[in-house]
Amino acid sequence: MPLKMRKNRSPKPPAPCLLTECMQVIAGAWAPNVIWSLRAGPRRFNELKTDIPPVSSKVLSARLSELEERGVLIRHVRPTSPPSVEYELTELGEELIPALEAIVAVGHKLKQRRGYKMDVEAAE
Questions:
Q1: Angstrom distances, CA of residue 79 to CA of 14, 32, 61
Q2: What percent of the chain has pLDDT over 70?
């Protein structure tokens, strides 16, 4: 006997879906990490690469370009010899920080819960 389809009782998101809109801004591998690294101030490419060790130069470059297009960060070319480039969060990028901090807080809780479950399973 097939299961009866239950009605979704969650309120419908406003059109256009603002959740989807926001998630598209921070979408992409390592994008939240880039924003997180820039929260303390401007960083150069190699500094960001050091901040996020697993990311490749190709992916980091792509993510920086995407975040710049989305209005999350600004790219500043500094008149040094040789020229250097710094990346800095825009006002929109700054507004994303509390949301990322909340996600990190939930991540800590999930990690603790997972650790607790592993301890219980090991004890059994």
A1: 45, 29, 20
A2: 92
